[in-house]
Amino acid sequence: MLISEKMILPALILCALLGGALAFNPIPVALRPRAPKRVDQSRAKYFTPARASPLSSIESSTPCLSSADISALSSQGYVVVPDFISPGLVSALREDVSALRSVGNFRVARIGQDSTNALNEDVRVAETCFLGRNKLRDSPNESRGRLYDALDAVREDLSGNPALQRKEEAVAPALEKTLDELLYAFYPRGGFYRRHRDSVAGSASVLRIYSLLLYLNDSWEEKDGGKLRMHMDSGGDFLPPGEDPNFIDIEPRGGTLVLFRSDAVPHEVLDTNAERAAVVGWYNRPVNTSDASDLVNDEDKVRALMLVAALVLVGGGLISLLS
Question: Which of 172, 176, 251 is closest to 208 using CA atoms?
Fold first, then answer.
């Protein structure tokens, strides 16, 4: 099916004027109240005693990235932040994963972008559950609210931060809060996700600027497997012929936050020998008028037009029509 760019560009411009944001895939919306004031102190304050305590005492303030974290992300293209959230919040979120799986809110994870999204168990064996402040309203959970506050604060730390501007960028990328993608990822024993990139030209994923993982595992040991492997070679989804492997393995210990540039770091989840849980997400830039016309697949252009039309009808809000 052929779609005229003359149809697409005016619609996108109208969308931008209305202040809306375009989602090409059914991605969660993170609409949040103003985040509580954050205190930039050492992360020791985010630890809580091992004994059971009410959720209100899990975090006394919202975690934030340090200047050293921002510097590492800028220079390396990735940063690993141990103990970003407290053990108490890790435990509460892990219990939330179990509760949501028990009532059927998780689905077998697929791979690919846009119209190519499909089940492929040679590439990925996992389950996912979409998250967001407007999601799972029939299963409210206070720990999720604290998670959203923490990740919203991370977005604020990253968005338009001059320290994160790359040489080829005129300015550091701004991030659009209504386009955040967030989900729980659960890997059973024998789970994995082979090497891939999170941002691929010619697809809706090109909006992704930063990828995040926040681990929820309890008492992880080397024998459990499931490490995150970040590839530092010059390849994309595959190691270039004749090039030696070059990678960094990250232990998926509970509370560890990993951030990296979505277009720059191919990565994979190594085979798991024990159940593995994490929060996974992407911070996206705003849509510009060239995005829909840059999509490779005509079906995806139709999807983009449908969503633009829906945005106009609801007065500029972000909605998801397609599943």
Answer: 176
* CA dihedral over 133, 135, 141, 147, signed as positive or negative: negative
Residue 283, C-beta contacts closer than 8 angstroms, at least 6 positions apart: 154, 155, 158, 159, 175, 180, 208, 209, 210, 212
Residue whose tokens read 């990235």: 65
Number of CB atoms found within 10 A of residue 68's CB: 10
Give the dihedral sign, CA 74/75/76/77.
Answer: positive
**88 and 53 in contact (C-beta within 8 Å)?**
yes
- CATH superfamily for 26-286 is q2cbj1_9rhob like domain (2.60.120.620)
Q: For 127-147, what is each residue's pLDDT tens digit?
A: 999 999 999 999 999 999 999
Answer yes or no: is pLDDT of 51 > 50: no
